Amino acid sequence: MNSHVQTKKLRTGVIGLGHWGPNLVRNFSDHPKVDLTHVCDIVPSSFDRVEYLIPKSCTKTTKTPEVINNSEIDAVVIATPSSTHFALVKASLLAGKHVFCEKPLTLETEKDKELCDLADQLGLQLMVGFNFIFNPGIKKLKELIQNQRLGELYSITTKRTHMGLIREDSSVAWDLAPHDVAIMNYLLDASPQRVSAVGSYPLGMDKLGIAFIHLFYASGVIG
């Protein structure tokens, strides 16, 4: 009898080949424990742009149900515009799929909670792509904080800008701030008790283009 246990690869489909999707296609196709079987985008020309990243055996489709409702797929990766996340994540969970979704999970707190509760009820993994908390530099910073190598912590300041790409379906607060909130929560092992924020609309759109956010933690730290 072979003493080595054969681990089944996680059969995965990626939906969305826009700004960030190609990075996820590359990472999941390179992962030794993942079998990337499907990639999906509603724009057919998107496949040509990332053809070199897509495994030859991978099925390409412009129809999301062909990924979500495929009984041979174990997990769905979602990298579509933020306003589409809720419907796609919910459909994937109800289809029995584990889900990795790019941030933000949705654009409404109640919808976030609904999806998290649904994943718990169904015994499925739902993960949001807060990639910075896996960054070696951030992990080292947490180690220094925990070992009190930096002294007593009073505040954390971050600044995030993104020149060029303008999201039409979400504000700067939803597009960029989730990374910094995730980093602070990770460093402090806590969620803020209070939040205050102000912003402006310099681009003349109905979505915030500039935001200043303060997070207040029970420890007294302000972010």
From TrEMBL:
PANTHER family on file: BILIVERDIN REDUCTASE A (PTHR43377), GFO_IDH_MOCA-LIKE OXIDOREDUCTASE N-TERMINAL DOMAIN-CONTAINING PROTEIN (PTHR43377:SF6)
Protein's recorded name: Uncharacterized protein
Residues in GFO/IDH/MocA-like oxidoreductase domain copies: 139-223
Domain Gfo/Idh/MocA-like oxidoreductase N-terminal stretches: 10-130
Leader peptide range in chain numbering: none
Pfam families: GFO_IDH_MocA, GFO_IDH_MocA_C3
Cross-referenced SUPFAM superfamilies: NAD(P)-binding Rossmann-fold domains (SSF51735)
Gene3D superfamilies: Dihydrodipicolinate Reductase, domain 2, NAD(P)-binding Rossmann-like Domain
GO molecular function list: nucleotide binding
